[in-house]
Amino acid sequence: MRRAAVFLALLLCLLWTGARGSDGGGTGKKEGDFDIQEVKAAHDQSSSQTQMSTDVWAELQRANADLLARVTASENKSTALENRMSSSEKQVEELQRENADLLARVTARENKSTDLLDRATANEKRSTALEGRMNSSEKEVEELQRENADRPQVAFSAGLTDSGSVGPFSTAMTLKFSKVFTNIGQAYNPTTGIFTAPVKGAYYFRFNMWESRKLTYSSVVLYHNNQRKMRLLDFIDRSGFVSESNSMVLQLEKGDVVYIVLPSSYGVRDDSHNRIIFSGFLLFPV
Ligand SMILES: *[C@@H]1O[C@H](CO)[C@@H](O)[C@H](O)[C@H]1NC(C)=O
Ligand SMILES: *[C@@H]1O[C@H](CO)[C@@H](O)[C@H](O)[C@H]1NC(C)=O
Ligand SMILES: *[C@@H]1O[C@H](CO)[C@@H](O)[C@H](O)[C@H]1NC(C)=O
Predict the structure, then answer these.
(1) What's the 5 CA to ligand 1 centre distance in angstroms?
(2) In CATH, what number does 155-285 get?
C-alpha cells in the first residue's frame, strides 16, 4: 500500500511540474500546498492544457487501480499463507506430540525386550549349569556301571556230604564240601575244599558243624591262609545232637585262601538234610 502511495505522489509531482511549465508559474503556490483538486481544477480550467497531461492522468488512474488490485491480491495471498502456516504449525505440534508418544512406547517396548533378554540369558545360564550337573551325574552313573560290570561276582555255598559221618581221624584234615549249591565266580574248589580270593576285598563267610553220635567230640576250625580264625567245639554225652555255627567278615588279599579243618579225633555228620554248610561271598573290593 505504501509503495503504491509513493508511486502516486511521484507521478503527481511530475504532472505538477509540467503544469507549472505551461502556465509560466503564475499560480503563486508553494510546492507543499499541492493537491489533487488543484491539479484537477488546473486540468479543467487551463486553456493551454496539452494532450500529454490528459494521458498521464488516465495512466495514473489505471496504475492506481492496478496497484490496488495487486496489493489486495498480495494481502489475500498473505492471509492465505498465514492460515496455512498456522495450520502447519498445528500439524507440526501434533506430530511432535505423537512422536514423543511413539518414542515413549518404543522405549517401554525396548525396556521390556531388554528385560526378557536378560531373563532368557539367565535361564540359559541356569540350563547350562543344570546340563553340566546332569552330564557329570551321567558320567558318574556310567562309571559306577562300569565298576559294577568290572567287579568280580563271587558267591558260593556247599554242603559237606550225603554219606553220613566224617571222622574222627588221627590227623587234622581239610573238609571237602562236595555238594555245591552255588559257585558264582568259581572261587570255591570242591575238590580241595579251599576258597581262593579272586580280588582283594572284604568277604563274608558262614559255617557250622553238626553231630548226632553219642559220646563224640565234634569240632571244626576256620582257617585264613594258615591262621586259625575260629573254632566250634562240643561234646555229646547222651543221645541227641550238637549244632553250632558262626560267621566272619575277613579282609583278604587276592590269592588268600579260606577253608574249614576237621581237627584230629573229632567227628561231624551230614546227610541229605544238608546239616553242615560252608558259604561265602564278596562284600566289596577294597
Ligand atoms: C480478496 O479477498 C476478498 C475476500 O476474501 C475477495 O472478495 C476478493 O475477490 C479477493 N481478491 C483477490 C484479488 O483475490
Ligand atoms: C527404560 O529403562 C531406562 C533405564 O533402565 C529407564 O531410565 C526408563 O525410565 C525406562 N523407560 C520406560 C518407559 O520404562
Ligand atoms: C553335556 O554333554 C553334551 C553331550 O556330551 C555336550 O554336548 C554338552 O556340551 C555338555 N554340556 C555341558 C554344560 O557340559
Answers:
(1) 21
(2) 2.60.120.40
